[in-house]
């Protein structure tokens, strides 16, 4: 079928032409509801009238940025990369990825499992829900997806094939270059300008050239370092969760980029949530749980990544017999420490971009009280600055926690 933008009616007509979906719903009558709350795409919950539990998600990319409108064109080919990434990640670790029922690159559409018993993690965290299995789940997801799509695990030719498959996601990479690394740190029309104009903290940030130079180093890593297949936008709005299960959705920003970028995105979003609780709820117990979770995520990520590497005797990078065991272990540990360092740097950029840039996060921009919101912004900028200025000197996860705790 040639591409056309679907709506609540035509999505049903379209889906009923697909055998697997017709079989899924059987003789039931189906209805559709648009439930998208993201910045880019349209998301339909398609469910049975007779059995509301029987449902699927149909997500379609339109040739513009949803949150702005048709005046901001954005190639719908982003869905091609989301489809490819869902497939790739599902093959590595199916437990953490919604099962795809149907996809069409031509229609820029994917139909997947409806996660009816899960919520967007950001909402849960804002409401102070503790997800005790999260650090275990997400550290497995991140270490496995990053390790097994990198030159540490893949043959040289398979790695280059993988890069070819994702190299075309140019528009979303450019969006990140602009919206994460550049525009939020300078005067720009896309910023939250009501809050920027005559705000001394914004002026201070825009003139902090020491900080901005370090951001450039990180942007350069983002633009040039092709370590592994990334999710590319791994914030807590891209995670659906309950007490027992964790799913990672929405990998449309996927590309082969630096190891630390996904880990950094997650770290930034957990710290933003911590800031929300420092300023708004002042819930000490929850704050402590968040800090412990941050530590566990980072430590478990490092340990699991190392373990995958130890289990693999031969790799495109370090062929069998090249190093002795002792040197090899020291080399691997240093390598993983550098991933964590970069993650901290990227986390700093990602935290700071949420303060004045387009697409703020509910934890900070959603604070109604202007004074409290200003406090949260200041705290976010303070931690972000520490992260960006010191990321290349970090040695342990405890040092990261110290930066977070000492910022008040
Ligand atoms: P966008 O690409 O526009 O950011 P998302 O993939 O983040 O879109 O989806 C938007 C929203 O749709 C999510 O925040 C979530 O509420 C809902 N959603 C997406 N995928 C699923 C799913 N598989 N099951 C249930 N809800 C989903
Ligand atoms: C205008 S798009 C803004 C942001 O939404 C996505 O989730 C990415 O984080 C992007 O930078
Ligand atoms: Mg999204």
TrEMBL record:
Entry keyword set: ATP-binding, Kinase, Nucleotide-binding, Transferase
GO molecular function, one term: S-methyl-5-thioribose kinase activity
EC numbers for this chain: 2.7.1.100
GO biological process entries: methionine biosynthetic process
Pfam family, one: APH
Domain Aminoglycoside phosphotransferase: 224-271
EC class name: transferase
Family annotation (InterPro entries): Aminoglycoside_PTrfase (IPR002575), Kinase-like_dom_sf (IPR011009), Methylthioribose_kinase (IPR009212)
Oligomeric and partner information: Homodimer.
UniProt family annotation: Belongs to the methylthioribose kinase family.
Protein name: S-methyl-5-thioribose kinase
Protein's gene: mtnK
């Amino acid at each position: 079928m040639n591409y056309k933008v679907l709506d609540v009616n035509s999505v049903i007509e379209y889906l009923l032409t697909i055998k697997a979906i017709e079989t899924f719903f059987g003789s039931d009558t189906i209805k559709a509801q648009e439930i998208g709350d993201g910045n880019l795409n349209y998301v339909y919950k398609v469910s049975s009238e007779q059995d509301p539990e029987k449902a699927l998600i149909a997500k379609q990319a339109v040739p513009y940025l949803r949150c702005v409108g048709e005046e901001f064109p954005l190639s719908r080919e982003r869905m091609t990369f989301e489809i490819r990434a869902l497939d790739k990640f599902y093959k590595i670790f199916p437990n953490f990825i919604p099962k795809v029922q149907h996809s069409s690159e031509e229609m820029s559409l994917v139909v997947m499992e409806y996660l009816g018993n899960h919520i967007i993690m950001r909402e849960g965290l804002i409401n102070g829900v503790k997800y005790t299995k999260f650090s275990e789940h997400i550290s497995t997801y991140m270490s496995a997806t990053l390790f097994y799509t990198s030159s540490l695990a893949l043959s040289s030719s398979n790695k280059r094939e993988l890069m070819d498959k994702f190299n075309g996601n140019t528009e979303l990479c450019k969006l990140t270059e602009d919206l994460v690394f550049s525009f939020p740190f300078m005067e720009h029309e896309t910023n939250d300008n009501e809050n920027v104009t005559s705000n001394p903290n914004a002026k201070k940030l825009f003139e902090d050239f020491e900080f901005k130079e370090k951001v450039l180093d990180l942007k350069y890593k983002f633009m040039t370092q092709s370590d592994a297949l990334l999710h590319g936008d791994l914030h807590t709005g891209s995670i659906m969760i309950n007490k027992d299960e964790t799913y990672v959705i929405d990998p449309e920003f996927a590309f082969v980029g630096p190891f630390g970028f996904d880990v950094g995105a997650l770290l930034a979003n957990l710290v933003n949530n911590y800031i929300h609780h420092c300023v708004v709820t002042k819930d000490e117990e929850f704050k402590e749980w968040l800090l412990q979770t941050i530590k566990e995520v980072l430590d478990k990520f490092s340990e699991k990544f190392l373990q995958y590497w130890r289990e693999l005797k031969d790799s495109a990078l370090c062929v069998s017999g090249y190093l002795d065991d002792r040197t090899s272990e020291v080399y691997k540990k240093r390598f993983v420490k550098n991933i964590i360092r970069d993650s901290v740097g990227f986390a700093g950029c990602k935290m700071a971009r949420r303060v004045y840039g387009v697409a703020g996060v509910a934890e900070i921009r959603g604070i109604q009280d202007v004074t409290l919101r200003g406090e949260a912004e200041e705290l976010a900028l303070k931690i972000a600055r520490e992260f960006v200025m010191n990321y290349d000197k970090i040695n342990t996860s405890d040092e990261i926690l110290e930066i977070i705790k000492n910022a008040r």
